[in-house]
Amino acid sequence: MSSIERFNEGISEVRRLLDSDKSHQTDLPPYPASSPSDPDHPSLGGESLGISSYSPLLGVTIRRAAVVLLISHFEGFLRSLAEEMIDVLGDGTLSTRQIPVGVREAHVLPKLTAIVGCNDPRQRMALIGKLTAIASLWNDTAKPPRGPFD
Q1: Are 77 and 30 members of one domain?
Q2: Which of 41, 88, 121, 140 would disulfide-bridge 97, Cβ 3.0–4.6 Å?
Q3: pLDDT tens readout for residues 115-137
Q4: How many whole angstroms separate alpha carbon 3 and alpha carbon 122?
């Protein structure tokens, strides 16, 4: 299942939670005028959440829970989207021009910095020799080699 499909399932879950909120229905009895310290007060009643089914607090609680759930699903979507992108980049099917320049730069710049900062000529030549493996990132008609995008 793709990232977007999982995210859409998460949105459906949030919608089901919001649909369960009956606090906005007009046919429910009005919020009682009893004091919050009264043991019969709906927010302190015997229900599992301590909130009666017609308490306005229940609606607020459900909407807050829906926001938390939606954020959680969105974070999961972003995480799995990044994983999918890494998989696509590493499988060698994209041509170089399809890979964003920023991704290519992020992959190459640390290697160039290491070469520039190297004072040992032998080590510098070895590092330069390793650049041939990633040179295809700058040839728009090439496909980068398969493997991890490290």
Answers
A1: yes
A2: 140
A3: 999 999 999 999 998 888 788 88
A4: 46
